[in-house]
Amino acid sequence: MAIRFISVNIERDKHLDRIEKLLMESNADLVCLQEVMQYDVNRLAKTQGYHDFFSATTRHKAGDDNWEGILILS
Fold first, then answer.
1. What pLDDT, in 10s, does the model give residues 20-70?
2. What are phi and psi of 43, to 5 degrees?
3. Nearest of 43, 40, 38 to residue 61 by alpha carbon
4. What's the N-to-C CA distance of the chain in angstroms?
5. Is the Cα dihedral 29, 30, 35, 38 positive or negative?
6. What is the rounded CA–CA span in Å between residue 27 and residue 13?
7. Are 8 and 22 in contact (CB under 8 A)?
């Protein structure tokens, strides 16, 4: 059985509509996304009912959810 894997640098929230479309059309088993804003994690995970793991790497401005990081979806 093959595993479908996607890895994309999404450039924060610049291309969210395109990334959501990619996730829906690809039906990937495992997705690794770089430069994800923490406030977009739930939106991206909900596209296919993925489980998510977010690791923050860089903080942008003040606020609890203004972190950028790596997102793994499965």
1. 999 999 999 999 999 999 999 999 999 899 999 999 998 877 666 689 999
2. -60, -45
3. 38
4. 16
5. positive
6. 21
7. yes
